[in-house]
Amino acid sequence: MPESKSKFLIAAVGAAVVVAGSIAAYTYFKAPSGGSSDALGSAKLVPSTALMATYITTDSQAWAKLQQFGTPEAQKLVAKGLENFNKQVFSDSNVSYEKDIKPWAGGVMIAVLPPNQGKPAQLKAPNAPINIQQESNILIIVGITDKLSALNFANKLKSQKGLKFQESDYKGQKIIETTENSKPTYSVVLNNSHLVLAPEKQAVEKAIDTFKGESSFASKEGASSILNKGVDVKNSLAQIYVPDYAGMVQQLAAGSPQAKQLPPQALAQLKQIKSVVAGVGVDDAGVRVKAIANLDPQLNKFQYQSSPGNIVGQFPTGTFALISGNGISRGWETLVEESKNYPEMKQGLEQVRGQLKFFNIDLDKDIFGWMNGEFAFGAIPSNQGVLANVGFGGALVFDTSDRKTAEATLTKLDTLAKTQQIEIANRNIGGKDVTEWQIPRQGALLSHGWLDQDTVFVALGGPVAEAISDRKNPSLDNSDTFKAVTGSLQKPNGGYFYLDMDKTQTVPLLKSLISSDANAITILSSIRGLGFTANSPDKSISELEMLLALKPIAK
Fold it and tell me: 230 or 464: which carries more pLDDT confidence?
């Protein structure tokens, strides 16, 4: 947030609380809290037209949980960043967040309202620079948990220079317009328990209308259930609510000067998702994000199938990144079916089919048809042969019930490689027959072979083929890091995305990208890894979970 805007909002906060302070002191301080510190209480002041809302907790215990993670260097870096931010925001005043704001500020809800129809983006001058903040229609609700502290803070701000305050009345409520450098912010205190802020006066007026009885976000169809349930994360820091996903995307796109009109096919895809709720929290493993998408089962074409997770055991413990799943063939069939509604996509698929047919390869049958079991792609360190410069290679592993077709496809690819002057050679690695595409003086470019009766691999680089085929070392699923990053993710699931941050930073190509940024290295060194998974218990719901696994602070 720009420095001037930050000071501006702080002043607006103070001005609004001053108005509340005009009420008789005894009545004011004894007034009921009205649910100021919870998401539902704030949502009752947000107009029902809001597209989405985010609730951020100010509970110090939840945020303090983050302090158990990180290297000393990382914690110093974060502390310095917060100190610099506070200096920027409060540089021209004697205001302290810890002393003046924290004691009274409850949870904060940030709601996104539909684009203001009174100021359409297309009326801007043709060559005027685009300012995203000008197009945003934001409403902020701050819970007031300690009215005396809030009043003291407001009085402290009265002496601030460069600020102009002007009152106006709307339906019996005092709206404060706070102006600095010709930029206004509007605020009002409602029910002595919530401070309402917005850069547009109309947004504050709509909040007052809602307070007076008009329909609220809390009572909106689709919003009520997700507000009450939320997402179950420990030490919740934030919750995000989107009651009408397709409607939100449509309205935001319509209000953006750069966005094109959504085609009917894209809108049909969006309508598969009815609502979304997400939560961010902190637990003993790190920062966890969970999201739940409520789907329309009649429109949801995707055929979900959980993944057993056994294929992870085919990768060596040195694997630093992995993506796994199940049933590529089913996903391909769904994509082909959906392409019938997208002429450009259908044309592209037909072009690929035609090109492969020239080499006697059927895209649907020979490439995707036999990929009907678990699959995984893993990145494995290697500093030899063709991989010497980049420092890593990759391996694809597939379980299939159609070995015959898979073998026929690999034979076709070997024959095609021969026409490109690539030497095809066979060798035995760990008791397994492996076919290699060899380049003179560089070794194997690509290798493939069977790990068991139903499991085939394709590897980039000879050393990677050796790591996959010769199982002398422990497997990835038994490594401490993999267990720490993925062990607490929901099961059953459709597969994993996994990243080992320590090993990733040692890969020469990736290391070179961050070597010049000392701060980035410090932060990344505090991260153990990243894990992501998804699950769909039925066609009406999809659940996603991500864990940013952090290293506990050394004791």
Answer: 464
Strand 52-56 to 423-429 pairing: unpaired
User: Which SS3 state, helix, strand or coil, does residue 22 take?
Assistant: coil
460: CB partners within 8 A, 6+ apart: 387, 393, 394, 395, 445, 446
| Two structure tokens written together for 210 | 């809602």
Highest mean pLDDT among 146-160, 302-316, 445-459: 445-459
Q: Which residue has the tokens 């294929």?
A: 311
Locus of tokens 């030899």: 384
Residue that the structure tokens 């990768």 belong to: 315
For residue 110, which of 143, 88, 82, 150 has the smallest C-alpha distance? 143
Residue 528 CA to residue 541 CA, distance in Å, equals 30
- Rounded to 5, what percent of the chain is helix, strand, coil? 40, 30, 30
Pairing of strands 183-190, 173-180: antiparallel
Q: What percent of the chain has pLDDT over 90?
A: 45
Token pair for 203: 């947004």
At 502, the amino acid letter reads D
3-21 vs 147-157: helix crossing angle, rounded to 10: 120
**Length of the chain counted residue by residue:** 555
In sign, the C-alpha dihedral spanning 440, 441, 444, 446 is: negative
In angstroms, the Cα distances linking 177 to 143, 204, 305 are 20, 11, 55
Q: Encode 127-186 in three state secondary structure.
A: CCCCCHHHHCCEEEEEEECCHHHHHHHHHHHCCCCCCEEEEEEECCEEEEEEEECCEEEE
- Please say whether the beta carbons of 44 and 34 come within 8 A: no
Residue type, 163: L
Maximum separation of any 2 CA atoms in the chain, in Å: 91
Cα 321 → chain centroid: 18
Residue 21 structure tokens: 């302070």
Q: Please give the backbone phi and psi of residue 483, each rounded to the nearest 5 degrees, phi first.
A: -65, -40
Instruction: Read off the pTM.
Output: 0.86
- Token pair of 152 as six digits: 């003291």
Q: Would you state the pLDDT for residue 93?
A: 60
Place of tokens 């020239």: 358
Cα dihedral 206, 211, 214, 217 sign: positive
